[in-house]
Fold:
Amino acid sequence: MGFVFVTSPCIGCGRLFSYNPMRVPSVRIDNDRKPICAICVARANPEREKNGLPPILVLPGAYEACDESDMIWG
Structure:
């Protein structure tokens, strides 16, 4: 049994951060998912709501490691 987390740059600020690859919020750019950090989500959501867009939802555990059994391999 093991745990999985991914580290990569945030699409918003470029800062490296770790996250659960199955739960992290992301933005689609050129049909590719780009992860967004919690700080950028907190900054973006008030602007999104002001512009009539739904907030970016952060699932529980999005910025924590996940159990390897939760991963979809293949």
Q: What stands out?
A: The first strand starts at residue 3 and ends at 4.
